[in-house]
Design goal:
Oligomer: heterodimer
Number of helices of chain A: 0
Helix content of chain A: under 10%
Distance between the termini of chain B: 37 Å
Number of strands of chain B: 11
Largest sheet of chain A: 6 strands, mixed
Largest interface: A-B, 29 and 32 residues
Shape of chain A: globular
Strand content of chain A: over 45%
Largest sheet of chain B: 7 strands, mixed
Radius of gyration of chain B: 13 Å
Radius of gyration of chain A: 14 Å
Distance between the termini of chain A: 41 Å
Structural class of chain A: mainly beta
């Protein structure tokens, strides 16, 4: 079975500081990994995904994540936080479903707070 | 391109009542997903459709939940009778791809259900 663990349910940073959101995965096969962001009262929006093409993945809004197989990690970073980054962030692992599509298994989420 | 549409956005019902949620995926998307997101948790897949057929409903509480996707387009999720623990946000997602684990799912804004 595949799973992800997000360390820290709440992270607080100052505006302009580095953002680091942690995600560790468990998978018996090479994983496909995703980061989604959820703003209040909205659905989830894809930030970036890892599909084995490159270990450093760049996403929208200045976010990036690095896949480290030896550490089974896929941490999300952004060099300089902006107030608009305040949201909940979900890491997810995907597997193909027999019959079509894929199944996402999400972590419990990390609420990012950005302070002035 | 219009996104995934869901209605209603909010619903308050009493326990033992019934409720239905509607989802209209992005035009042309073959795969449709319903997720349940309880406060403080990541989304959990309830059911997945490929066109109008079910490919995964292993986590759907079938004694009270039902879903259909007639004509392979929009979908309805029903709860009858509702319990207090069904209070959650119900997210609908769709994907244009019929196979593969690396593909993005596009999420709607969700329906927030409160059962009193």
């Amino acid at each position: 079975a595949q799973s992800v663990t997000q360390l820290g349910s709440h992270v607080s940073v100052s505006e302009g500081a580095l953002v680091l959101l942690r995600c560790n995965y468990s998978s018996s096969v090479p994983p496909y990994l995703f980061w989604y962001v959820q703003y209040p009262n909205q659905g989830l929006q894809l930030l970036l995904k890892y599909t084995s093409a490159a270990t450093l993945v760049k996403g929208i809004n200045g976010f990036e994540a690095e896949f480290k197989k030896s550490e089974t990690s896929f941490h999300l970073t952004k060099p300089s936080a902006h107030m608009s980054d305040a949201a909940e962030y979900f890491c997810a692992v995907s597997r193909r479903i027999t019959g079509g599509g894929n199944k996402l298994t999400f972590g419990t989420g990390t609420q990012l707070k950005v302070e002035l | 391109e219009a996104g995934v549409a869901q209605s209603p956005r909010y619903k308050i019902i009493e326990k033992r009542q019934s409720v239905a949620f509607w989802c209209n995926p992005i035009s042309g998307h073959a795969t449709l997903y319903w997720y349940q997101q309880i406060l403080g948790q990541g989304p959990k897949l309830l059911i997945q459709f490929q066109n109008n057929g079910v490919v995964d409903d292993s986590q759907l509480p079938k004694d009270r939940f039902s879903a259909e996707r007639l004509k392979g387009v929009d979908s309805t999720l029903k709860i009858q009778p509702a319990k207090l623990e069904d209070s959650a946000v119900y997210l609908c997602a769709s994907s244009p791809y019929t196979s593969g684990a690396s593909y993005e799912q596009y999420f709607g804004p969700g329906t927030r259900l409160t059962v009193t």
